[in-house]
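Same chain as my last thread, 250 residues:
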Amino acid sequence: MIALFLDYDGTLSPIVKIPEKAFMSEEMRDAVGEAASLFPTSVVTGRSRDKVKDFIQLENLHYAGSHGMDIKLSDETEAFQPTSEYEPRITEATERLEEAVQQIKGATVENNKYCVSVHYRNVQKKERKLVKNIVNRTLTSFSDLKVTHGKKVLEVRPKADFNKGHAVNYLLEYLVNKNNWDRSQVLAIYIGDDKTDEDAFKVLSGQGGFGILVSKKRRKTDASYSLKDPPQVKEFLQKLVSWKSGEAQV
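reply #2:
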């Protein structure tokens, strides 16, 4: 059995200048929906869970938002939120960061429930270091939060030991127990493009699964394979569907 795990930004949708406009194509939505009808499929993203679900608009997926800290299974009513106690701190940090960067043109702050994203893609290059310094200085008042780096974004997250790798393990354990699978017979595939996806790549590389890095440039990674961009991700999903559909007809 194959279990699919997909990042969103830069994987299912292109990287865009305005985060609120990171829409996936209808062709990608069809490809993901068809894959999810054949394989258990989860989206694991730094976005808030509700926000990414609004983007994708598919009900037959498991959604893990806030870098895996907010997991909602497709057939469960309650979400698994291992860092829920941090929500007030994230709200406070969001307000402080919005105030701190408001004078920097192009800088935006996005509250993703259990993490905060400070986007600087649209900031002039000469001011990007200033954004980083402001974020780090603001976070000195939040000893329970940490800053990690993504693609033109600073991610403010709880220092709690939970990331996309932990989310993948949680989802796999759920799938194995629910379906009474033999864990050794499950091939888990994770597709993602950013540094936070490396936590999932690393987990799967030690469990018989594998990661697929979405990148046009070669870089050090724990992923086993690579695809160049979201269009290639779509093609991969379509080929996976075709393979499975053909297997069922034999």
